[in-house]
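Z., the sequence and structure:
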Amino acid sequence: MPTDAAPLLDAKGVDAGYGTMQVLWGVDLDVRPGETVLLLGANGAGKTTFLKSLVGLIEARSGHIRLGGEDITKMRSSDRMKRGMTYMSELAVFPDLSIEENIRVGAQALGHVNPGGRVDELYGLFPVLRDKRRDRPPVCPAASARCWASPRRSRPSRSSW
């Protein structure tokens, strides 16, 4: 992977917090094509705050965030979502809906013209989802819920079901 490739995501000098409490001071991150990035830190270190600032759920008080070269620092979170950015909470699903209903809701929220087509596409990539389409999403462990809630990003093993 060439190191001179332009970053897909570039955050520089990000400060953020909640109310009068500042949590982040000058955080930098760049993610280049083909890279996988892992944020590690102790509880309370600011990992969630940083992710929420990247997707626009909380305001970056200073610094800049660029996606594909476009400055998105002040962009609404809904517009960032349309560009492919999202934040997934620990559960990230509607527990009272079936797996297929959750996928359809996600496809509609992301603006897919044909949510049914997206469902079929995901079933092609993850056949285990088709087998469990009428089931409720797993509630434990949280990692299992995150794994199926974002099937575009990772391939769950059958043992996680």
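The longest helix spans residues 99-109. Confidence is low (pLDDT under 50) at residues 140-146, 150-161.

Let me know what you think.
H.
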